[in-house]
Amino acid sequence: MLPAFTKENAKELDFGLKGKTAIITGASSGIGLASTEFFLAQGANVVMSGRRKEIADMAREMGGDRAVGVSGDVRDASHRDELIRAAADTFGGVDILVNSAGVTRLANGEELSEEDWNEVISVNLTGCFLMAQAVGKYMIGNHIEGSIVNVASQGGVIALKQHAAYCASKGGLIALNKVLALEWGEYGIRVNAVSPTIVMTAMGHLAWDGPKGEAMKKEMPSGRFAEPEEVAAAIAYLAGSGASMITGHNLILDGGYTIK
Questions:
Q1: Are the CB atoms for 23 and 83 separated by under 8 Å?
Q2: 30-86 pLDDT tens trace
Q3: Can you tell me the distance from the alpha carbon of 84 to that of 242, in angstroms, rounded to the nearest whole number?
Q4: What are the C-alpha distances in Å from 95 to residues 25, 91, 92, 103, 164?
Q5: What does the alpha-carbon distance between residue 56 and residue 220 come to, in Å, rounded to a whole number?
Q6: Can you tell me the distance from the alpha carbon of 11 to that of 70, in angstroms, rounded to the nearest whole number?
Q7: Domain at 15-254, CATH from 3.40.30.10, 3.40.50.720, 3.30.70.3270, 1.10.1200.10
Q8: Residue 143 has pLDDT above 80, yes or no
Q9: Is the pLDDT score of 240 beyond 70?
Q10: Which of 38, 73, 230, 238 is 20 to 30 A from 194 via CA?
Q11: Alpha-carbon distance 200 to 93, whole Å?
Q12: Residue 166 annotated among the catalytic residues of the structure
């Protein structure tokens, strides 16, 4: 059995990513940042996308000449074009896209504002589609047999209170995942998703440390939440050569929460 991913043993695991170039969105924090660290440890080149202006400095510090950071919003066409151009000009192309950018707004259905609904859908679903579309066109046009991994959520397969917009966006992303896998399989492009439970990012600790989190963990066979590095390992597996026969799949990383 492979050991669980940690920053210390990442280089010992071979996911077939060495020399590949990945664009990772939402890369300045959380799952996107953990994925960047994993891909770099595996010998991949990474183009980091995030809204933080210091992401270029982060990339240089993390990866040296194997990482580039581009600040912007995946909903902007100019940012999507810049990411692809950075990958092509710096590393010679794009082999992998990790769609990790996402937001949430919590409210009961009768109280959720139209503004918050639109924000969540536009980032989590529309932004992911537009990013996948841009990279998919590039791969098809350049005859690249690549891989796209979309970060969805257990909220895309089950209902969570106060998560109407979030669940709708992630459920839509899982459905989109299947359609793109079906359409782009003939070009050798694989499209998969990962759907984690609560992940102990900075936001995860803020929202779930305390009695609410402890009660939630009691409902999970694993008895704990996920770490960002564990999600990164699953993303790397789906992106890499070891998953060459897997496409259109949604890998649920929930410690067994959704099996009930």
A1: yes
A2: 999 999 999 999 999 999 999 999 999 999 999 999 999 999 999 999 999 999 999
A3: 25
A4: 14, 10, 10, 26, 34
A5: 38
A6: 25
A7: 3.40.50.720
A8: yes
A9: yes
A10: 73
A11: 33
A12: yes
Q: How far apart are CA 201 and CA 205, in angstroms?
A: 6
Which pLDDT belongs to residue 11?
63
Amino acid, res. 224 = R
Q: How far apart are CA 140 and CA 149, in angstroms?
A: 17
Q: Rounded CA gap, 60 and 33, in Å?
A: 13
DSSP 156: G
Other Cβ atoms within 10 Å of 205 Cβ, number: 14
Any residues with CB less than 8 A from the CB of 127 and at least 6 apart, and which? 25, 73, 74, 75, 101
| Domain regions of the chain by residue span | 15-254
Element containing residue 151 per DSSP (H, E): strand 147-151
**Catalytic residue chosen out of the listed positions 138, 166, 237, 257:** 166
Which distant-in-sequence residues (6+ apart) come within 8 Å of 113 by Cβ?
Answer: 105, 107
Which tokens belong to 176? 């989109």
The answer to whether residues 190 and 233 touch, using CB atoms and an 8 Å cutoff, is no
Q: How do residues 200-234 score in pLDDT, each as one tens digit?
A: 887 777 667 888 889 888 999 999 989 999 999 99
Residues whose CB is less than 8 angstroms from the CB of residue 175 and which lie 6 or more positions away in sequence, other chains included: none
CA torsion sign, 37 to 204 to 150 to 253?
A: positive
Element (H, E) at 185: none
Token pair of 247 as six digits: 């496409």
> Residue 9: its pLDDT value, please?
66
Q: How many CB atoms lie within 10 A of CB 213?
A: 17
